[in-house]
Amino acid sequence: MEADQSRIEEILVEQWSQLLPEVTVTAESNIFELGAHSLMIGRVASRCRARHGLDLEFAAFFEHPVIRDLARSAAEQVPAS
Question: Domain map of the chain by residue range?
């Protein structure tokens, strides 16, 4: 699960960095403090699904606005291989 969480963190940091190039995005970033809004969340969720097969619920971004927390929650949803 930890490897999954790290990979999900990397994906999320990359996606948010592309949408918010004027700020530094890290795993500890709160997306709302960086300036994210619902349209951006939709874009990130869509890109994660299309490019990485990572299905993140829209509500999860609001429940876990810190990237690391969202990645941890998403990793817990991934079936063990």
Answer: 2-77
Residue 23 CA to residue 58 CA, distance in Å, equals: 23
pLDDT in tens, 2-16: 559 999 999 999 999
The token pair at 38 is: 């619902």
Task: In whole angstroms, give the CA distance from residue 63 to residue 74.
Answer: 12
The Cα 45–Cα 60 span in angstroms is: 10
pTM of the model: 0.90
Query: Is 1.10.1200.10 the CATH classification of the domain at 2-77?
Result: yes
C-alpha distances out from residue 2 to 20, 37, 78, Å: 26, 28, 11
CA nearest 58: which of 72, 39, 77, 76? 39
